[in-house]
Model the fold of this input.
Amino acid sequence: MCRFKRRGLLMTNRICVLVAAATLTVAFGQTPVSSTGWLINGGSLIDPSTLRSDFAAALQKLGSRMTTTSNATTVVVGSVTDENGTRPAKITVQAPGYLRYEEPGTLRVLTFNGSSFQSAAGQLTLDDTRVIESLLAEFPDDIFLQLATGGNLRRVGGHFRTDNGKTPNYSGPYWTLYAYYPPARAGLASGQALQQSLFVAIDEQAWLLSEIRVMNQSTASAKVVETQFNNWSQQAGQWYPGQIVRLENGQQVLSFQTDTGSTGAASPTSIFQP
Done:
C-alpha cells in the first residue's frame, strides 16, 4: 500500500502518487551525485568516498560489498514465487553492474551484460520485466552501483512512518526518503529498468534499504510499484534481505525468499550473457 506519514502529513493511495509525482519533478535535476564513482581497480569497484555520507554509511552497514576485488560479486540463492508457483532461483550482482537471474533446472536465464537486458528464451515477457526490475536493477547492491556512477539524488526528508498515521504508540519503522534518477545509459530507454525515477527508503534504525518505489505515469492511472526488502539477516559479516516482495498498486505479484547469500571475487563476464 502506498502510504507515508511525516509530521502530520499523510500520503496515501492517489494522494501519495500525486505528491510523489510533484516531488519527482522538483527532485530530479537537483543535487547531482558525484560522477567520479569508478576510481578503484581501473574503474570497476565502488569508492565509498564518492558517495554522499549517508549512503556511504549504508554501504558500510551492508558489509562494504563491491569495494574490493574479494567482494566484487554478490550471489543470493533462494526461491521465487509468482502466479506460476514457487521455484528455486539465484541472483548474481557483480561490479561494475553485471546482473544475472536464473532458475536452476530450467532454461530461464535473464542477464544484463552492461548494455542490455536479455533472456535466454528470446523476447522479454511481463514476468521477466518484473524480475529484472525488482530482483536485479533494484537489488540493494545494484542501487549502490548505480549511485556510484552518478545521476541526480535528493534527500526528500526523514522520519517518515509507514502506517496510516493512526497506530497508538507507533514505535517504527521510520524511513529517510531519497529521490534518485540514474544517469543515461546508451541502449536503454527512459522508463526501462536502470533508467527509472526511484524513491529510495532507508530504515533509520538499521540503516538498511527498506523499499524502492517507482511511479509509472505512462498510463492515465499512475501505477505504483514497490519493491520491499524485509527480514534482513547477517551471514559471514554481510547483510542480505531475507525476503524481497514486489507490489503493483498494493497487490503482491512477485516474491523472493533468501536461503543463502555470499560474496566473492568477480566471475567471468561470459556468465552475464544469456
